Each structure stands twice: as C-alpha cells, then as structure tokens.
Here is the input.
Amino acid sequence: MPESPRESPHSGSGGTLKARDRIRLRRVEREAEGYLELGMGQHALEALDSLGKAVDFSPHLLYLRGEALRELGRYEKALEPLRRAAKVDPDSTHVWLALGWCHKRTGRIDLAVTALERALEAEPRDALVQYNLACYLSLAGNKERALAHLSQALSLDSGYRMLVHDEPDFDPIRSDPGFQELTSIIV
Here is the structure.
C-alpha cells in the first residue's frame, strides 16, 4: 500500500523534503545516534525503522542502520546498508571502518583489508584507520605491511601503544623481531 503524503518523508516535487519531514528525519537521526552511544542497537534500529524507506536516501542514516545491526552482532546484515552508504559517501572513514569490522567478523579478512585501504585513501593520517588496518593485515599474514601501518598509527597517536600488547589480532606477528622492536619503544 503506498504511503500517504503525510507519512512520506519525500513529499513534494522531485523528492524534496518538506520542513517538517526534515525536522523529523533529524530528530530520528539524533535519537538513533543516542541509542547507539548507549549500546542500545535494537532501539536505534526501531527508531530508524520508523522512517520507512526514508532511511534509504541518506548515507548517514544508512550508516546508522549498519551500526545498529553491527551493535546487535548481525554483521552480515549490516554489510548491505554500509555498502550503500560507502557508495554514496566514499570519503566517510566511519563507514569504511564499520565495513571492515563487519567483514572481519564474517570471516572475510581480505574484504576488511580492502575496506580499511579505502578509508586510508580518504584519510591517510587517521591513526584509528592505520591501527585497524595493521590488525587486519596481521591476521591476513602480511607482516611487513602490518608493521608499516602499526608504525604509522603509533607515530600519529602514541596512545595506541597501550592497546598493542592486549590486541589478539597481533598474535600472528607478536614474536616477530620487527614487531617486538616497534612495540618496545618507550615514548
């Protein structure tokens, strides 16, 4: 059954939003963001679902849907809205990081690496991207590249040094002399 004009967030000519619909979209967006900050993925998803198909037209709302599904451990399902968000907004490091996270958890380290490489194209000086790419490369068995990106992450933000020793993603390269040298530097 088609939506009535009062319910459709795309009322008006050419799909433009009316002021009240833009206000509603923004309110639901903030609500979903708040739920996600509190770790309440199901509530965020329900808020986004209240928008119906409107969520399909905004890269940020697609990202929020992906994040809500990711929060719920529904990684495979989260990939679809995250891919769509990345297609519309290819410079969003947040989207690429979320895609990498989900790909890792669905057993596709190769796609996790690709996602983080795309994030790096958008923001080469992002320590979080560098660090996570190092993690995924370590898991993929690419020691040299993992060490290079870990070195870059640590030079951008030395705070990541405190995470390295407890990070299981580095287990495949932990005994490597290059890893030990890199992580033993006292700052």
Remarks:
- The mean pLDDT is 89.
